[in-house]
Amino acid sequence: MEPAMDVTMSKEEEARLVRRIDRRVLPMLFLIYIVAFLDRANVSSALTMSMPEELGLTGQQPNTALAVFFVPYILCEIPSNMLMKRFTPHVWLSFCILGFGVVMLCQGFVKNFGGLVTTRFFLGLFEAGIFPGSFYLISFWYKREEAQERFTFYFCSVIVASAFGGLLASGIAEMDGLGGLSNWRWIFILEGILTIVVAAIAFFWVSDFPAEANWLSQAEKDFVLQKTRGEESEKLDGKVTMADLAGFFKDPKNYFGALMYFSVVVPVYAFAYFTPTIVRTLGYSVVQTQLHSVPPFAAALGLCAILAYLSGRTKTRMPYVLFSAGILIIGLALLMTTRGNFSAQYAGICMVCMGAFGAGAIVICWYLMNLEGHKQRSIGSGWMISFGNTGGILAPFAFLPRYAPEYTPGYSTCMAVASLGIIVTLCYALLVMRDRRRMARGASAGKNGHTLSL
C-alpha cells in the first residue's frame, strides 16, 4: 500500500529524524558484522600460532579450510535475503548470529582437519545472510545522497574487525595453556561467547524495514517512505518470482556490478586472511606480528571516511572507485618489486588495504542504490555479494606457504583482478550512461522516477 498521506517536515525536523535513524539502525548492524568478520577471519591469527601442528594440518589443508567457508556462503545469500523479508530482519539476523556464534564456540574444540572443515562450512552457512541482508536493509532507510556515508560506515565494520582481530589475537596469544587449552583455541571460544551475547542483544535492537519499525510514529514512517520514493511499501509484500529473477539477469549491468565487487573481494580477503602471515615474513614474533597487522587497516579506515564524504557531497561514485583501484595497484606493484626493503613493503601492504577497502563501500552503494524496489535489491544484494565472494575461494590459494616470502603468484593474482576491476567499472559506467540517456528520452523511466547515478 502507499503511504497514508503526504507528510512534510522542516529541514531541522528531517535532520533530527535522520540522526535518530542513524543511531537506531546503524550501530547494531555495525556490531553484528564486527563479530561476524572476526569469527570468519580469526583463523588467520590462529594459523600463526600452534593450530597447524595440533590439528596436523599439512600442505594446502589450511587454505582448503578457509575456502570451504565460501561454498554455503555463496549459495545461500539470495535465499537468505528472501527469508529475511519473510521473517523480518530482527528475527532472521539474530537467528543467523546465534548460529554462527555456537559454531565458532565449537571450533575452539576441534581435534583434526575434518572438524575444522565442518565448522567452517556451517560458519559460512549461518553468516551468508548478514552482509547482503544488512546492505539490503540499510538501502531502504536513506535517500541516495544520504546513503554513501551510511554504507561506508557499515562497510568499515570489516576494517575495524580486521584491525581489532589483530589486537585481540595479540592479547589472547598470552593465554596459551590457560585451562589446559592452547591460545588459538581461546580465540574461537571467547569470540564465540561474544557472538552469542550479541545475538541476544540483536533480537531486541535490530531495526526492521521502515514500514515495520515500531519505534517510529506513523507520520515518521510515511515520511521515510516518501523520501525514499515509496519503494518499500510498494514492494514489501510481493514475492520474488522466477520471472523477477529472469528479468534481473537480462540486464547486463548486474553482471558488471557483481564483477566490480569481485575485483574488490579478492584483495580484501587475501590481505584480511594473510596480512599476519605476510607481516611475519618481515621478521616479527607472534605478538609483534598481530600488532603490526593493525596500522594498514587503520589507514584504510581513514581513506574510507574521506572518500565517503567526498562521494556523498559530489553525488558521484565512479571517480572514487577508480582512485581506490589506482592506490591498490600501486601497493601491489610495491610488494611485487621490492625485496628486503621493510619500509617499501609495509607501505605496499598499507596501500593495498586502503585501495581495496576504499573501493568496496563505494561499489556496493553505487550498485545497490541504482536498483529499484525490494525485489531488485533483494536479488541484487545477494547476487552481488555471493558472486563477489567467489573471490573468497580464490584468495586463500593465492598465498600458499611455498610461495613465501615473495608471494609472487598471490600479488600477481591480485594485480590481475584489480586491473579487471578498472575495466568492469568503466563498462558499468557506460551502461549506466546509456540507460540514463534512454530515461531522458522517456523510453524506460522507473515507476517511481527512479534514476541511475554515476
Automatic annotation (TrEMBL):
Matches recorded under PANTHER family: MAJOR FACILITATOR SUPERFAMILY (MFS) PROFILE DOMAIN-CONTAINING PROTEIN-RELATED, PERMEASE-RELATED
Database matches in Gene3D superfamilies: MFS general substrate transporter like domains (1.20.1250.20)
Membrane topology annotation: Multi-pass membrane protein
GO molecular function annotations of the record: transmembrane transporter activity
Native source organism of the sequence: Stachybotrys elegans
Protein name, per record: Allantoate permease
Residues annotated as transmembrane: 25-43, 63-84, 91-110, 122-142, 151-172, 184-206, 255-274, 294-312, 319-338, 344-369, 381-404, 410-431
GO cellular component: plasma membrane
Subcellular location: Membrane
Domain Major facilitator superfamily (MFS) profile: 25-436
Superkingdom in the source lineage: Eukaryota
Keywords attached to this entry: Membrane, Transmembrane, Transmembrane helix, Transport
Pfam families, A to Z: MFS_1 (PF07690)
